[in-house]
Amino acid sequence: MIATVILSELLRHKPLKQLALLLSLILLPAVAVAGTLSIIGSNRWVQAAYIYDGDTFRTSKGERIRLLGINTPEVGHNRQRPQPFSKEASKRLKQLIAGKVVQLSFDKERRDIYGRTLAQLYLRDGRWINKILVREGLAQLYVFEPNHRWSRALLAAEQQARAEKLGLWSSKRFKIVAATNIRNRHIGQFRLVTGTIKQAKKWGFKLARLHISIPHKYRSFFKHPPTLKAGQPVTVRGVIRTSPAGDYFLALHSPFDIEVRR
Questions:
Q1: Which CATH architecture has domain 43-170?
Q2: Is residue 34 very low, low, confident or very high in pLDDT (cuts 50, 70, 90)?
Q3: Domain ranges in the chain?
């Protein structure tokens, strides 16, 4: 912008046209380079020093990085038992990035409530770590709005892994559960649930005994209420909860939390 103003002013004086031409050859490439650097500046490189689990690691400078848009099985804390394929996910991430310099790529929000940096992760050869873990069945799509820039590609990778029953999709703990089979043992679990819509309203619907809703605070992430009707087969994802009356509930936080099957 500065170079353009300078050149415009110079060209008003005919004797200076040759000087203006010379300046254009000098300044404009510099402006182009600066513009390129500003784009690249949205990404940065770090060295992976310590792997906590399948989706979290620490850099050589002590920064904690959480892989954005995915979730791997929990390794187990305190008295909690590790979930199936948690060790495999941790081992795979370590194999892919331990000691290496990796690129972080960001979405709208760069930190979570725990102060961890949220990022997509790339190796120098261009391999996309988040997608690799999902495609190999070691992670599942986990969208935290407004960060959904890569969600469509990650969902496609997950659907392939699910179809091939890779990794966690082969385990009873993570396989997709039918809405008619929801029981108290599922309460508190993040699950994928499939079923046929029984009743449909503007911001919710029902699958067997499972009530699906889109809470007010998440509706802004949906361009419009989902166009759904009774009889449509869908797959939803979220935490299963219950009411004192014994009904089951699941809240959708993102448009990527529902798949309408054809």
A1: Beta Barrel (2.40)
A2: very low
A3: 2-40, 43-170, 177-260
* Amino acid 243: pLDDT: 86
**Cα–Cα dist 52/177, whole Å:** 29
- The one catalytic residue in 63, 64, 74, 241 is 74
- Residue-wise pLDDT for 138-187, tens only, equals 999 999 999 999 999 999 999 999 999 999 999 999 999 999 999 999 99
pLDDT confidence of residue 16: 44
- Asked whether this chain's domains 43-170 and 177-260 adopt the same fold, the reply is yes
158 catalytic per annotation: no
Both structure tokens of 192: 């994928």
* Residue 116 appears among annotated catalytic residues: yes
Task: Select which of 116, 135, 191, 237 is catalytic.
Answer: 116
* Contact by Cβ (8 Å): 44, 37: no
The pLDDT mean for the chain works out to 87
Residue 262 binned pLDDT confidence (cut-offs 50, 70, 90) = confident
Burial (Cβ within 10 Å: 0-12, 13-18, ≥19) of residue 210: buried
Write down the pTM of the prediction: 0.82
The residue from 66, 92, 162, 237 that is catalytic is 66
Nearest to 89 by CA among 134, 48, 128, 44: 134
Characterize 233-258 residue by residue with b for buried, 16 or more Cβ atoms within 10 angstroms of its Cβ, and e for exposed: ebbbbbebeeeeeeebbbbbbbbbbb
Is 259 labeled as catalytic in the residue annotation?
Answer: no
In angstroms, how far is CA 40 from the centroid of its own chain?
A: 20
On the question of pLDDT at 5 being above 50, the answer is no
The CATH superfamily assigned to 177-260 is Nucleic acid-binding proteins (2.40.50.140)
